[in-house]
Design goal:
Helix content is 42%, strand content 24%. By secondary structure, the protein is an alpha/beta fold. It has one domain: 3-Layer(aba) Sandwich (Rossmann fold), CATH 3.40.50. Strands 4-3-5-6-7 form a 5-stranded parallel β-sheet, sandwiched between helices. The chain has a two-stranded antiparallel sheet with strand order 1-2. The protein is globular.
């Protein structure tokens, strides 16, 4: 996070920073908890959704900068990616799944996903992808 300082007389105050928001969408509760805890510790505001319907509701309420979207879950996959893209065209969407078939990757990228990451996820690589996407978006 950017921690530049503003000088006012002799006092130094940190500049207010905008906390980036991430929505984690996965039907595995433990995965949501793990991602949420890790990303919160990295300074992100994180909310979770356990299915596609809940995710679409949270898009309106939370307005995330980035969406981590599990491929295989109820009301998920390409259909949910398309719906998320329509609701929040500027959000970064990263597909996450234990099983991503080679043909699907092209479909997800064509539909507007920024990247596809396989589970088990290396959290440092995930963080790098998120920061890279948000900084270049």
């Amino acid at each position: 996070m950017d921690r530049r300082l503003i000088y006012q007389g002799r006092m130094v105050y940190p500049m207010p920073t905008v906390q980036r928001k991430i929505l984690m969408v996965d039907d595995e509760v433990k995965a949501c908890q793990l991602f949420s805890r890790f990303l919160s510790n990295q300074g992100f505001a994180v909310q979770t959704a356990s299915d596609g319907k809940m995710a679409l509701t949270k898009l309106d309420e939370f307005q995330p900068d980035c969406i981590l979207l599990d491929v295989r879950m109820p009301h998920g996959g390409l259909e949910l990616l398309s719906s998320c893209r329509k609701k929040l065209p500027d959000a970064i969407i990263i597909m996450v799944s234990a099983i991503i078939e080679p043909g699907q990757v092209g479909d997800y990228l064509a539909e507007g996903a920024y990247a596809c990451i396989e589970k088990p996820v290396d959290m440092n690589i995930l963080l790098e992808k998120i920061e890279q996407a948000l900084n270049h978006h």
